[in-house]
Amino acid sequence: MKKSITTALAIAAIVTLTACANSSPDLIRRGDAQTMSSIQDGVVLSVRAVTVDGSQSGVGGVVGGVVGAIAGSAGSGVQREQNVLGVLGAVAGAAAGNAIERFSTKEDAVEIIVQLKNGDRRSIVQAVGSEKLAPGDNVILVITGGKVRVSRAPG
Predict the structure, then answer these.
(1) pLDDT digits (tens, 9 = 90+) for 81-114
(2) Do 62 and 133 belong to one domain?
(3) Which long-range contacts (CB under 8 A, 24 or more apart) does 2-7 make?
(4) Which domain holds residue 151?
(5) What is the pTM for the complete model shown?
(6) Domain check: are 87 and 155 in the same one?
(7) Angle at the Cα of 11 from the Cα atoms of 23 and 62, rounded to 5 degrees
(8) Chain centroid to CA 112
């Protein structure tokens, strides 16, 4: 029974962390809907692939620690040994949980260098979306609440 609870907790943690990892430019957050954004016109100078490092909010470590403690103390034997194994399991589980969280929240992204119509240049890093941009493309920078995304200019 304890093994099935441990497995269920681990699966729930991975699913939760993976669901939090999306920052696609094709996904608009609920809070940004029906909000006016400012737009700037520009031209793409360069695009290069980058990786956005995963986050470590601590959720992975906490869940991993709990799962590890349960798994470590689940064996039979002397209570003292079970306690030691529980602590060791918690430490190992926390380290594994942090690593899983960091790996599952890592994203493929692009760094886009844009020259604005006024001559200023901007660098924007955004998750890979459905639009593939290339140097020379006319684009718009959509700025909403301090967040910027680059999209192909209409028409």
Answers:
(1) 666 666 666 667 767 766 666 666 678 889 999 9
(2) no
(3) 2/70, 2/71, 2/74, 3/71, 3/74, 5/70, 6/67, 6/70, 6/71, 6/74
(4) 36-52+107-155
(5) 0.55
(6) no
(7) 80
(8) 19
